[in-house]
Design brief:
heterodimer, A: 493 residues, alpha/beta, six-stranded antiparallel beta sheet, five-stranded parallel beta sheet, 17 strands, globular, B: 508 residues, mainly alpha, 69% helix
């Protein structure tokens, strides 16, 4: 064989080998990342699946973005498309690189950057995710990934030095391997499930909700802890100011309007002081800062609008999203896409969103008629399980909604996203496609019913649970009895 | 820079690529620069020590050659001895200062305290230079080899510096001999795809041993040894057995990565391990374990001791039966081996234990044979050979308690805990899940150890799995290669959840 042919073959072999290696590693990474916690750190990844130029607004930042902004709601009400390009806790430098990438991908009219990261205390050593989360989410083929990794490593090393001066026990430094999904999530093989192998090309779950990650729990946040002011933490750091400048220039360069936001959460006086400085900086630089902490008209209710100490639940997020939508529409930069071609998915989701709204705002103590209608109207976004024994009233309500239930006869029924199936099986599955159903019903010999490893108290009645298969968050189970419903009290056997 | 660090994953391909791209005449300079950079990643100042050690041994080689040329044999022999002595004293002096001085001072203080004299000896704040014992021994072997006439003195100081500092084996061996490596540094190496592939496979296997087995076993070992008072019986036994696995995989893994990396560039390093836990006697164990150190000690310490007049004056010798003083030399050699591993009494105890066990083995050899004959035990059966292997493994494990425990008192305390109760049920009642690893991690560890055992078994029977793989069709080979990378990437103990664990032998 001629030398050039040999060389060509060798090169082709090396290239094919490299391609296969990247492919296998990428698929492995995707399989390993499918657990709710990991996927949350990739909530924004679906931005890569959006048609370039189809997103009007990108919302960039940490978990406060994906828990506060519902792009579908803003679209439904104002026809403005948006995407939450966010991961859990992240440094401001990560946010900066996220902004660069989001602008590169979509050239949006507006980029909204959440600023909680600007108030981080430099003396506190954060979890590794904080230094690498957003950069890890960037595509390995993105030019900004190549630039971001060394930049973030340098900043992390500097912050390590600062933190170790204050706290000798600070955790060790990071390496470039921490910026890749496979090397970061490789220990998650214990969480593998059937669903892990379904989305091997990347997570779809949050892409379907445009990066929004809803939570429905209601938790009253604790009062924030006050922090001692030190030379390090009392003012915006030089690094923060540098990054704000860089964000401003990046947006200006691409013709994107930069807007800052602060999602509502209980702040302490040090953070208030820094937000004051951020307001001042934004004003000086002609950038709008939507500080939702300073908007009493939002009517954020601490008892109903949070799911933990700092994150809004679905109900709080609706309030912020409406305010955000109002602000965006008032800028006059956007056209209403609701009637335009090419936005089918958004419009389809609008219908779904109505159902989401119906399901997820359904009171746990709503009349059983309302529950029956909701259960009958579920679509492919949902899984549901019904199990128990209906009395005359409840059976009538269920049958009115389209079910065929006999009063006094125990039954199990599973909604798999398409059909309701009355269960002939002795035991209904605890999960479908890897989505967890807390309930599992088992017929016992006497015709009674056991739900999961627990016994339903207050039977007869029908236990119900609905799971949103896109977000994988199971709603609390309820027990339907007669014409009413109540949260399902379950007791360990 | 650790072999299992992210920097090395960039460093090695870069160095190798450039090595084959640049002209042959400057390649050794490139490797020298890369090796010093590799070493200076730990502490740049200690590169100076290595340079001094290099210069001393290089000069001693030149001096020995010069004496041989310029003086008549008798006078030359005297000069040569002076050069050898100078090289050994200076190098061992450096090693002593950085590794053993504090230990010696602390013991001196204790000794005075026993005599009722309160002596305050200052402890020096010296950080142990990484790999000092390895490169010092390698450099000294050069002096000895030139003295013995096994190799010619190397005139090019930079090429010689590369011999001492060659990065794949710089900090944890194998301790190479000048007659093997020095000549290779002059050779012209072309890139050989098959050789490189084989080298990479060996590196991957080394990484598997290190990051999948050793570092995972270390989680349990550290949990138990760091808090040994809380554990007893079989948990302690399990920790020691896992430490045996850990230390083997850690060091053998390092050696495999080193040998594989050198092979990719065209160099052939000596084998350092040959399935040591399949040994039937302790002597055989030492011919399979850390071979480069064992043979070094044999060539440059044990044999000179056996034939020296000095050991014949020691009390425990075979003089009465007119044999060379093997036993005392053996004990002294293993004492030195223990001391080489660390400046601590538990390392010395570990070394002495091996030395004494071997002496006992030799002394009782005839009697044991008689017993075996009387009891009609067939020694050629598989069960007897397995019994021998288990016995040797148990002895090695017992000695590891001294090796792993942070101090002599901790080692003795650990033994107390180990024999404080008979509780085999802890292996099944969920106790193992409280030792720092969950069910999946245990599963991975057990499967990986089984794989290691199968591979070692194949190697011990002369079956090379690398050669076997290379003989397969392309799709099969590629699946194996891809699988190897994926297994390492997924089951490796690295990343934010784990700190890149040092190789155990770096501390020596």
């Amino acid at each position: 064989m001629k030398a050039w042919k040999k060389r060509l073959l060798c090169t082709l072999r090396v290239l094919l080998w490299a391609f296969l290696l990247v492919f296998v590693l990428r698929v492995t990474a995707n399989v390993l990342c499918v657990s709710s916690e990991n996927e949350l750190n990739r909530a924004g990844e679906g931005l890569y699946r959006q048609r370039p130029g189809s997103i009007d607004v990108v919302y960039v930042g940490p978990s406060h973005v994906y828990s506060s902004i519902i792009p579908q709601l803003i679209y439904d009400e104002y026809g403005i498309t948006g995407y939450n390009f966010s991961t859990a806790a992240q440094s401001l430098a990560n946010t900066y690189w996220g902004l660069r990438e989001a602008i590169r991908l979509q050239h949006p009219k507006v980029a909204v950057v959440e600023l909680i990261c600007a108030t981080a205390d430099p003396a506190e050593r954060q979890a590794p995710l904080y230094y690498s989360g957003m950069a890890r989410m960037l595509s390995p083929f993105s030019p900004y990934k190549t630039l971001a990794v060394p930049d973030l490593l340098r900043r992390e090393a500097e912050s390590f030095e600062v933190a170790t001066q204050v706290n000798a026990g600070a955790a060790g430094k990071m390496s470039w391997l921490d910026f890749w999904r496979l090397t970061s999530f490789h220990t998650q093989y214990g969480d593998l499930s059937a669903r892990s192998f379904k989305d091997i090309w990347g997570p779809r779950r949050y892409a379907e909700s445009w990066g929004y990650a809803p939570r429905y729990e209601k938790v009253e946040p604790e009062k924030p802890k006050e922090q001692e002011l030190t030379e390090l933490n009392q003012d915006l750091s030089a690094e923060t100011l540098e990054l704000l400048e860089k964000m401003k220039h990046a947006a200006e360069k691409s013709g994107t309007k930069l807007v800052f936001m602060v999602a509502p959460y209980p702040t302490n006086s040090r953070e208030d002081r820094l937000y004051g400085q951020l307001h001042h900086w934004a004003e000086e630089n002609g950038i709008d800062l939507l500080d939702f902490n300073q908007m009493p008209q939002l009517d954020i209710d601490y008892t109903t609008d949070y799911w933990d100490n700092t994150h809004l639940n679905y109900f709080g997020a609706q309030k912020v999203s409406r305010a955000m939508g109002r602000y965006l529409s008032e800028t006059g930069l956007f056209e209403d896409h609701r009637q335009e071609k090419g936005f089918d998915r958004w419009n389809q989701r609008a219908g779904n969103y109505a159902l989401w709204h119906q399901v997820e705002t359904l009171s746990l103590t709503a009349p059983s008629a309302q529950w029956a209608d909701t259960l009958a109207g579920l679509n492919k976004d949902y899984l549901a399980l019904m199990a128990g024994t209906a009395d005359e009233t409840l059976a009538a309500e269920l049958n009115r909604a389209g079910f065929a239930v006999q009063a006094g006869q125990p039954f199990c029924a599973l909604f798999d996203g398409e059909h309701w199936t009355l269960a002939p099986q002795e035991e209904m599955a605890a999960s479908v496609d890897g989505h967890r159903l807390v309930l599992r019903c088992t017929k016992d010999g006497g015709g009674g019913l056991t739900v999961g490893d627990t016994t339903v108290q207050g039977a007869p009645g029908v236990a119900v649970q609905i799971v949103n298969r896109l977000t994988d968050w199971p709603m609390p189970p309820v027990l339907l009895q007669g014409s009413g419903a109540q949260p399902l009290e379950i007791e360990e056997q | 820079m650790l072999f299992n660090s992210s920097q090395f994953l960039l460093f090695f391909p870069f160095v190798t690529l450039l090595y084959f791209v640049i002209p042959h005449r400057v390649r050794y300079l490139w490797l020298l620069a890369a090796s010093y950079y590799f070493y200076m990643c730990w502490n740049p100042r200690y590169a100076l020590l290595m340079a001094i050690s290099t210069l001393i041994t290089w000069a001693s080689g030149i001096g020995i050659e010069w004496a041989g040329r310029h003086f008549p044999p008798e006078k030359a022999a005297k000069w040569k001895k002076w050069f050898v002595a100078g090289s050994f004293v200076l190098n061992l002096g450096i090693l002593f200062s950085f590794k053993y001085l504090n230990f010696a001072l602390a013991n001196l203080q204790r000794l005075f305290a026993l005599a009722g004299i309160a002596l305050q000896v200052p402890q020096l704040d010296l950080l142990l230079p990484v790999g000092i014992s390895f490169y010092t021994f390698q450099a000294l072997s050069y002096t000895a080899d030139v003295y013995r006439g096994d190799v010619d003195a190397e005139h090019n100081v930079l090429r010689y510096a590369l011999f001492v500092s060659f990065f794949p084996q710089l900090v944890a061996g194998p301790i190479e001999r000048s007659k093997n490596l020095l000549g290779q540094l002059r050779e012209y190496h072309t890139f050989d795809f098959a050789r490189a592939k084989s080298g990479v496979m060996l590196m991957l296997w080394g990484y598997f041993e290190k990051v999948v087995i050793a570092d995972r076993a270390a989680i349990v070992v550290n949990t138990v040894f760091n808090d040994y008072q809380q554990y007893s019986g079989f948990v302690c036994v399990l920790a020691v057995v896992l430490f045996a696995v850990q230390v083997y995989c850690d060091f053998s893994g390092y050696s495999d990565i080193a040998i594989g990396a050198a092979q990719v560039m065209g160099f052939s390093l000596m084998q350092n391990f040959r399935q040591p836990y399949f040994s039937h006697t302790l002597a055989e164990f030492w011919s399979r374990w850390h071979i480069s150190l064992s043979t070094w000690l044999q060539d440059y310490l044990f044999e000179p001791l056996v034939w020296s007049q000095w050991t014949k004056k020691l009390p425990i010798v075979g003089r009465r039966v007119h044999k060379p003083p093997v036993y005392s030399s053996l004990v002294i050699t293993f004492f030195a081996s223990g001391l080489w591993h660390g400046a601590s009494w538990n390392y010395i105890a570990w070394g002495l234990m091996h030395g004494i066990m071997q002496v006992i083995g030799k002394v009782t050899k005839k009697k044991r044979r008689k017993v075996i004959k009387k009891l009609h035990i067939r020694t050629e059966t598989a069960s007897y050979r397995l019994f021998q292997q288990l016995l040797v493994f148990a002895m090695v494990c017992a000695s590891y308690v001294f090796f792993r425990a942070p101090s002599m008192s901790a080692a003795l305390g650990f033994f107390r805990q180990m024999f404080s109760g008979f509780n085999p049920w802890v292996l099944l009642d969920g106790t193992l899940l409280t030792l720092g690893m969950g069910r999946e991690q245990w599963f991975v560890l057990v499967v990986a150890i089984l794989l290691l055992w199968v591979v070692d078994l194949c190697h011990s029977r002369g079956i090379s799995l690398r050669s076997f793989t290379e003989k397969q069709n392309t799709p099969v080979r590629w699946v194996v290669y891809l699988l190897a990378v994926v297994v390492l990437a997924v089951f490796g103990t690295y990343g934010p959840q784990f700190d890149a664990a040092q190789f155990i032998y770096f501390q020596f």
